[in-house]
Amino acid sequence: MQDYKVLTLLLVAMLAIISLVLSVRAWSSPFPYREGQVSSAGIQARVDFQIEDLLATRQAKSEAEENARLVFVQDNTVLDNIAAKFKSDLSAIANEKSLSKLPKEVVDAFQLKTEIPSDVEKGTSPSTRFDQVRLAITHSETPVADSVDRMAQEFSALLSGAQAVGVLNSDALTVGELSKEEHQPQMPIEIVGTDGRAISYNLLTDIILADQLLDTGRFGSAWLTLPNLVQIRPAVEAWLKNRMKGQMSFSSNLTEERRREAVNLVEPQYNSFSKGRVLVSPGTLIGKEQLEQLDVLTVEHRAHEEHTTFNGRLRRVAGAALLITMMVVLYGVYICRNERHLLQQTGQLVALVVICAAAVLLSGIVSRDPWRAEVIPLLAAVMTIAIVHSQLLAVLTGFCLSILITMSTVGQLSHFAVLMLLSFIVPIPLRSISSRSVIIKLGFLLAAVAFLSVWGFSAMQSLDFADAWIHPSILIVALKFAGWSLVCCFIVHGSLPFIESAFGIVTDISLLELTDVSHELLQELARRAPGTYNHSITVATIGEAAADSIGANGLLLRVGAYFHDIGKMVKPDYFIENMAAGAENPHDKLAPAMSALIIIGHVKDGVEMAEQHNLPRKLIDFIEQHHGTTLVEYFFREATNRADEDHRTDADESTFRYPGPRPQTKETGVMMLSDAIESASRTLSEPTPKRIQSLVKEITLKRVLDGQFDECGLTMRELRTVQESLVKSLLAVHHGRVKYPDQKTA
Fold first, then answer.
1. Is the pTM of this model over 0.70?
2. Closest to 489 (Cα-Cα) out of 428, 418, 424, 436
3. Which residues pair with 208 in a beta bridge?
4. How far apart are CA 144 and CA 139, in angstroms?
5. CB 166 within 8 A of CB 248
């Protein structure tokens, strides 16, 4: 426990447990019902609950809106003006003896041209309303002015009740928004002043002028107390109908506000369900026609969650944590035994935890209807792990994620089987991504498998349905799984460059792009160090064949060989393959230690160049490891000889060794052997098969005895296979040529 590496791994494990417990939302039970499911045993209510009856609520709100009060604004200044106008019109009638001399508006207001039939009993002859009104004003001995004043006073008394209640001309009922209320005189109304304050609450019939003029109305019952005015009642009523306008106005804005208030006051209407009531009958297929069932199940689930106690939630979390802990432990055991290199890469482990937790969390979110897209996070996580790490780790991850996703969604065995089947298929073609079409082809394969598996499991569970195999709900769910599987592959296909960059991996697609010799580093190498460039091309050719012979990634080795000596372009003249024939060797003027330092320095220079040009880490490994910790033998021996001549101690061997590290993969191990053998083969004056074979064995044995292959996993059998491949390749490179008769010796 004092080892920080062990503590780091424990912290990562704790992070995995906590993040996965949070991602499955262990404190709450998942909503397990989806469209297209078959409830074989039926579903009962676990608690008492209520669900809103939307239809009844809408009906109640509609009734409240219809019965809301109409709002009228009353302007009492209109009544004062009307009383004065009435007196003025009466005076005009009293002062004129002829109807033709009266203003037209006065005539029309009182309807003075209306003929009054004769009364036989009283012995009166036919006359007009003008005569009747004028006679009522002038018939007594009272002065005309006094008669007009009395009538005006009685008219004001007639209107006194309208100050509080108001008067609405009947013409207003046939225009605007009141037209629909014309035949509903019992509609409740609210009368407000011009300042917006409520004055009274009445019925519509209480303010309509025509209703008030009836004998049972406010004006009709007041005539008995108006002895002077009652004589000309028809004329007064006609005048009121024509002149009484504007005292009341309908307010559409205030009315709409009252309607909204009435609607907001309506309480929701509920249907009650008791505990134990059957919500879904056994054998029912939940489809679009049963959406109300899904609504009921959703409300029941929420009610059940609300009734869950803290101790109940704590037990859920404890159970989920125990299950996840066992998964993490088993997962860790597998990594310790089969993926030990991950134990040294804390960042990769944390990224693995984040991917898994995100997949479970997102799957739970998008698994609800109508999406049913839980396969996207699952397949994306499995594909990413298969590309970044290994197929076996991806399969194990898919198994664990399928359990967690099923646990946090529908909780059905068939659902787990579908997810697990897709997770098994995903890693198969992803061992090496040699072209971009690999992922797209995988998408169509997954779509077909997803459709058939979902459709098949659903049809098997629907034994009571004769048409289960063509049921729309089942087919729609199967098509959703198939479509999302294909979409996931397109998403991963488009995200592949970002995945490579984030995890520092190189797929065969990227390697194929890097094999283009037009890369600026290779172009610069060919220009500044042509000998090294040709050497790299040859090493790539023979090394790729050797790697393929033992099942290693030959394409990765070929690209690594292209770039492994780019550091030599810094000082190309100090390397033998770049020296021109007959030119002076610059090492002749340097001490052996200095020459060795320059030779060894090409590794460091190459790494710096690769990092500047953003080459993938796997290619930088070839630059660092292609010499391992081997000895620069020529200059070491030179230094040793000079030390003997000067009677000094032997030269320090560590000064003449490459810094390493030793090869860590089979590809870098084969690369080291190919590089050394190709360089040595150039020194053979007559590269016969026997000499080449002897050279290959000698160099291989020397590297083995030096321990250079101890960390790369190459076995002796694989080394023998690599030797045989290198011998064949070198024989092809140094093959003999037919000498033509006219050919001259160079």
1. no
2. 436
3. 168
4. 9
5. yes
